[in-house]
Specification:
One of its GO terms (cellular component) is membrane. This protein has 638 residues and is mainly α. It contains 25 helices and five strands. The two termini are 29 Å apart.
Amino acid sequence: MGFIADSQKGVGLWGGCVRSLVRRKQVDSAHVKVKGHHQLAKELSVPHLIVIGIGSTIGAGVYILVGTVAREHSGPALAISFLIAGVAAALSAFCYAELASRCPSAGSAYHYSYICIGEGVAWLIGWALVLEYTIGGSAVARGISPNLAFFFGGPNSLPGFLARQHIPGLDIVVDPVASILVFIVTGLLCVGIKESTLVQGFVTTVNVCVLLFVIIAGSYLGFKTGWAGYGLPSGYFAFGVDGMLAGSATLFFACIGFDSIASTAEEVKNPQRDLPLGIGFTLATCCTLYMLVSVVILGLVPYYAMNPDTPISSVFAEHGVHWAAYIITSGAVMALCSALMGSLLPQPRILMAMARDGLLPSFFSDVNKNTQVPVKSTLATGIGAATLAFFMDVDQLAGMVSVGTLLAFTMVAISVLILRYVPPDEVPFPSSLQDTIDSVALQYDLNGQDINCETSEIDAGTSSTLPMLHKNNAAVDYPEIVQQEAQVVLKEENRRKIAGWTIAFTCTGAFLLTYAATDLNLPRPVRFTMCGVGGALLLFGLIVLTLVEQDDARHSFGHSGGFICPFVPLLPIFCILINTYLLINLGAATWARVSVWLLIGVFVYALYGRTHSSLLDAVYVPVAHADRIHRSSVDILA
């Protein structure tokens, strides 16, 4: 394989655009340092990651979703719905765990997509995540003031300067508390990752203690009253299996938050060990708490009698424990504050990663030398979220948060398949190393083999009898060896082509199957045809990828020694199928709003990112030759 320069000269406008969309960057390694910028502080260990993960996952949703989903979908089987949602989230968690340990740099799904898929997809993922975390943080912040008002006597009881105010001329409701809290959290995040994590740890501990209170006190009441909620004529599955599964689809979003852990990968002391452990413990802890709370609350009152707005405190009030409302509301406030920190923490790191790659202005990539935090990106994130939280009612935009999450989860699963079957076989180098690359290239023939490697390697690492054997059989053995090596190369190229196209067909099949199963307005023949074709492609992809050997390069790709995703290709394919189904079910209105944001992102990339990318003039070389080029460049500099 030759040395390829990613120059767009002579390929035309459209050719250059296409090549820019598919160019991929290198996994950060000992050779690849962040040039011109300070590194983030490596301060985090497993306990810190668990705090970040639980704090980002357990928001106030659990204090509300318990009532809403139980009344409308799951009934007494709410705990089973949480279990299914947790298992579905675990599929994505497994994929995140492998990629986070192999590619431990800031950027999360954006970073993985850039390495495995290409710059175009990575840009859209990063752009969608910016929207997700901004709207998510704003929505969480606006949810805090109604809960705080409870301690002042009820709704609209906050002091005048903190209370929500309606502006008639603009027909908006401003929320001073939301913006103030966003600024407080932003300032805390600017102090340092370790300091902000300690504060988040305290807030998360209070939240978990409140949930444990609900479980313990609720269990006492349940045994005392005989668990009346489970003695209903409708049985355990009041809405059937379909209702239980519909509840799982809603609860899925209450089980995610581990992506915040992945965004801090660059700040973890031992990412190969700590990131998978942090993700795993987070998901297991959150799902266990969710299920226990569900079992207890649904056993105290019939599901149809639950208050959809304040289900947990209302249940305790019905049993005469009115004072529990103060404890439960305190937990809700702590949960919202912790979730706010979890929403504002990842976005500056994604902006920083995109700016490091040249897709955004370098302003966002600056890291403060004292706090070792991307302060400028953090301030920009805080100002944007605070402005949105102050002026806008983001409830109708909440669905847009899910788009970024599900797109990221889907691309991470696809990245795992690419990493296992067709990992990048070329590495980008800056054009400043062109002379070094040319000098190394002279040592290789057209097949990418070192002209002198036969002699040098044999002399250095074999016995003295081998040169005589080569001398005696040179006329016969050398052509045979070359022919065998050519056959191996051709076989490997065919394997990569088959695997690559199969992954593409599998993703297409997942889309066709889920779209046809969801859109009931399609004509029956069209719908059944799409289901058949999609199912056949999905099954074909699963069978072929199971039979095709995985690439040997996967063992050395990125940072080895970390977590390995099990059950490949079944697990990533199932993950793609679930996330695609949830994406399609978000509704046309949500997709219309997201499409506007993504279209803006396309223009930003076309006008700035594509022409300022750090890979604009990159020279791509085979992975097998990368170390020699690194050594040669170091020797020249020395």
